[in-house]
Amino acid sequence: MTGISGQIKAGLLAHGADIVGFADLGELPPDVRQGLPVGICVAVKYPPQVIRGIAELPTREYCDWYHKLNHRLDNLVIWGAGFLQNQGFRAVANTIERVSLDATEYNTALPHKTVATRAGIGWIGKSALLVTEKYGSMIRLSSVLTNAPLDTASPVNESRCGKCTVCANACPAGAISGKLWEVGLYRDEFFDPVKCGAAALERARRGFGGEVIICGKCIEICPYTRRSWRNSSGQPSAA
In terms of Cα–Cα distance, which of 224, 212, 238, 232 is closest to 66? Predict the structure, then answer.
């Protein structure tokens, strides 16, 4: 990877990103992508021990890292957008402040995970989270929109979860139907965000007294996540 693509990827990795990918968003409606044809997916990973710690209930440490990684991502996409703007391109950093979440539908106009699948980073799991080969779901995501001529990847259009039902069986909310995702399938056809949100709030209260919607059980239990523990720490992985 050379030219502007190599420069922006190297810069984001040097500033703390764990995964960077480029997506062709041309098939999406122009208003959704703010009239910009390319998306940059930026991902950062949780420390494995933090995710191992939420096997029973979410923890204060997990909640703190959730916010810490969101702050890191904001800094990364602001840097990335600024770099591209300095090169003469249009670029928009999809920071938390900029990307508004619908409080009743639990969604946004252009989810970061959509940019991630278009960038070939991973697929949408049965839990409605992005799943990657390297880190499972043990990541947080953000994105940049731009008109820079980046070297975009082939998109991932289908789930690679197969017949696995580990997350569905473990979900405290019963929010995961077990249906496989594919491009064009609306999230609510295979996952219930309202059930998830209610259970996550109750579990955070029990776990550390937090009045926040945070759970993470589907992240912790995912076989791809657990495989990443073995690869990073030498500890055995168990589904």
Answer: 212
